[in-house]
Design a protein that fits this description.
The complex is a heterodimer. By secondary structure, chain A is mainly beta. Chain A is 0% helix and 51% strand. Chain A has no helices and eleven strands. In chain A, strands 2, 4, 5, 6, 9, 10 and 11 form a seven-stranded mixed beta sheet that branches. Chain A has a four-stranded antiparallel beta sheet with strand order 1-3-8-7, with no helix packed on it. Chain A is globular, with a radius of gyration of 13 Å. The N and C termini of chain A lie far apart (39 Å). Chain B is an all-beta fold. The N and C termini of chain B lie far apart (34 Å). Chain B has no helices and eleven strands. The radius of gyration of chain B is 13 Å and the shape is globular. In chain B, strands 2, 4, 5, 6, 9, 10 and 11 form a seven-stranded mixed beta sheet that branches. The chains are: A mainly beta, B mainly beta. At the A-B interface, strand 5 and strand 10 of A face strand 5 and strand 10 of B.
């Protein structure tokens, strides 16, 4: 059974870079059938798609975040990663990684708080 | 960007009753519409994709309908475990630019 687990710092200072990793188990990141995504949810609010990546490294970004976001994939480790630069309090959210088959299979999420 | 609007924001119903949730797209998304259920402290769970196809393991009391810009999720005979927040998501565009509705909270 496919499982996704986010990891990374839970607290990031304003203006710094948020970095998260998603570890995939029970399946291969190399699967040609799926893409892999990052989605976030500010506390008490709705869902916002951030980016999607294919195992080949092809990337797709939400235009509203594109200038600050980088996603990458590490197929030997079965991991993919998110970097979000120049963070502010507005970037405080639950960050989910997900398998992207146009619809999503979600990890459990990790809360990242932006605060000094 | 395709804007997804859900209504109502909150729906109060009783166990055993029927609930109908709506989702409207700002432009046609064909049948590229999914519904998710999110309970407190949990990640969203896929219920419906392709506007009307139930995901694996989803009970038959959940049904989706619609195409183009108007969609509904109906839950017949509500169970206690169905009280949650429901989100719609469109996936019509390629390259992807996924957008979600703001959610409908189903409460007792």
């Amino acid at each position: 059974q496919l499982q996704l687990q986010e990891s990374g710092p839970g607290l990031v200072k304003p203006s710094e870079t948020l970095s998260l990793t998603c570890t995939v188990s029970g399946g291969s990141l190399n699967s040609s059938s799926f893409f892999w995504a990052w989605i976030r949810q500010p506390p008490g609010k709705g869902l916002e798609w951030i980016a999607t990546i294919y195992y080949t490294g092809s990337t797709y970004y939400n235009p509203s975040l594109k200038s600050r976001v980088t996603v990458s994939v590490d197929t030997p480790r079965n991991q993919f990663s998110l970097r979000l630069s120049s963070v502010t309090a507005a970037d405080t959210a639950l960050y989910y990684c997900a398998r992207d088959n146009r619809v999503f299979l979600w990890g459990q999420g990790t809360l990242v708080t932006v605060s000094s | 960007e395709i804007l997804m609007t859900q209504s109502p924001a909150t729906l109060s119903v009783s166990p055993g009753e029927r609930a109908t949730l709506s989702c409207r797209a700002s432009q046609s998304v064909s049948s590229k519409l999914a519904w998710y259920q999110q309970k407190p402290g949990q990640a969203p769970r896929l219920l419906i994709y392709g506007a009307s196809t139930r995901a694996t393991g989803i009970p038959a009391r959940f049904s989706g309908f619609g195409s183009g810009t108007e969609f509904t999720l109906t839950i017949s005979s509500l169970q206690s475990e169905d009280f949650a927040v429901y989100y719609c998501q469109q996936y019509n565009d390629w390259p992807p630019m996924y957008t979600f509705g703001q959610g409908t909270k189903l409460e007792i």
